[in-house]
Amino acid sequence: MLVLRNRMLASLVLPPPSLLLRKPAPFSFCLPTRLSHSTRCRNPTQNASSASKTAQSPPMSDGARFVGTVLFVPPGVEPDEVTDEMVLPGSNIVVGPYAGDARIREVEFLKSSPRAKDCPKDDRPEFAILGRSNVGKSSLINALVRKKEVALTSKKPGKTQLINHFLVNKSWYIVDLPGYGFAKAPNAAQMNWSAFTKGYFLNRDTLVAVLLLIDASVPPQKIDLDCANWLGRNNVCCSFNVNIYKDGHFITCLLPQCQIQSLSWNFLPFFCAFQIPMTFVFTKCDKMKASKGKRPDENIRDFQQLIRENYRQHPAWIMTSSVTGLGRDELLLHMSQLRNYWDQ
Ligand SMILES: Nc1nc2c(ncn2[C@@H]2O[C@H](COP(=O)(O)OP(=O)(O)OP(=O)(O)O)[C@@H](O)[C@H]2O)c(=O)[nH]1
Ligand SMILES: [Mg+2]
């Protein structure tokens, strides 16, 4: 397994053109119950037929280490083709043929934007780093690009207050967003996160995926659960034809009353308007021994348990540490397959 894993991580080359020319299959999740999933629906017909195919596929081999694990199966991989070696360590992510050049050769801070309309206007794909203030968003960016201070970090929450675009290999962006929920921060550092970030999500057609960062060194936090739950319900929201953003205004919201009443977040407008592929990135997984409570893997399990009912299909997730580099290469490889698929 190690050899194969290393080969996957070390090869880091673009898949052969024949694979890239293949019609993209949807991302799916391989469950014991055989649920399937698509992230961004580029071709609903194809997704539907492939989903039913997934639903009929035979279960994975009983000998596989990840039996019972909810796997993220990328385009080009049939769930019943998945082997142990194809699953990235510390994650539920299967590596498929769209995984490509994950090396970061150069990175530059491009700009800070106070509003979405100030963000770079080009067609480069981008990944948004979302999460609670102090969860480690800026640190993760530094770890991914292997530079200490490309993104500014701080022990105090509320450090990142603008939309920061980092250009990688002159071809794609990582976007550091301000964190949500820093009630403990000084007043000066507080801001209307929702209004601020909403504009970003509504205006970025080039968004490949959202990486939602969750601190694995602490038990599940309500604010993260709220955020994750809303992202999960977004899939449901989309099927209600809700919410149209036009001329700078939200003009319709046809959600069932019960869902409107249960709103505790202002996520509804933008997450209902767009179906955004997401990955849970669990941070601070190095804090194994230091934490007094549960271990990060237990916190991760608890978190996933708590959000499960809001997800018909479970997202990709991965364990990381910006201190030890855990999950760094794996996350980059995953981002490359999302990117290459998006590029089709
Ligand atoms: N042990 C450990 N500490 C981390 C890790 N990632 C971040 N930290 C620490 O957590 C604190 C916050 O990190 P930041 O990267 O600034 O967090 P942020 O999410 O960007 O915060 P805001 O900009 O306020 O939204 C810093 O003291 C980091 O050193 C990690 O993987 N392990
Ligand atoms: Mg930050």
From TrEMBL:
<dbReference type="GO" id="GO:0046872">
    <property type="term" value="F:metal ion binding"/>
</dbReference>
<feature type="compositionally biased region" description="Polar residues">
    <location>
        <begin position="39"/>
        <end position="59"/>
    </location>
</feature>
<dbReference type="InterPro" id="IPR019987">
    <property type="entry name" value="GTP-bd_ribosome_bio_YsxC"/>
</dbReference>
<dbReference type="InterPro" id="IPR006073">
    <property type="entry name" value="GTP-bd"/>
</dbReference>
<feature type="domain" description="EngB-type G">
    <location>
        <begin position="123"/>
        <end position="341"/>
    </location>
</feature>
<feature type="region of interest" description="Disordered">
    <location>
        <begin position="39"/>
        <end position="61"/>
    </location>
</feature>
<keyword id="KW-0547">Nucleotide-binding</keyword>
<dbReference type="InterPro" id="IPR027417">
    <property type="entry name" value="P-loop_NTPase"/>
</dbReference>
<keyword id="KW-0479">Metal-binding</keyword>
<dbReference type="Pfam" id="PF01926">
    <property type="entry name" value="MMR_HSR1"/>
</dbReference>
<keyword id="KW-0342">GTP-binding</keyword>
<comment type="similarity">
    <text>Belongs to the TRAFAC class TrmE-Era-EngA-EngB-Septin-like GTPase superfamily. EngB GTPase family.</text>
</comment>
<dbReference type="InterPro" id="IPR030393">
    <property type="entry name" value="G_ENGB_dom"/>
</dbReference>
<keyword id="KW-0460">Magnesium</keyword>
<protein>
    <recommendedName>
        <fullName>EngB-type G domain-containing protein</fullName>
    </recommendedName>
</protein>
<dbReference type="GO" id="GO:0005525">
    <property type="term" value="F:GTP binding"/>
</dbReference>
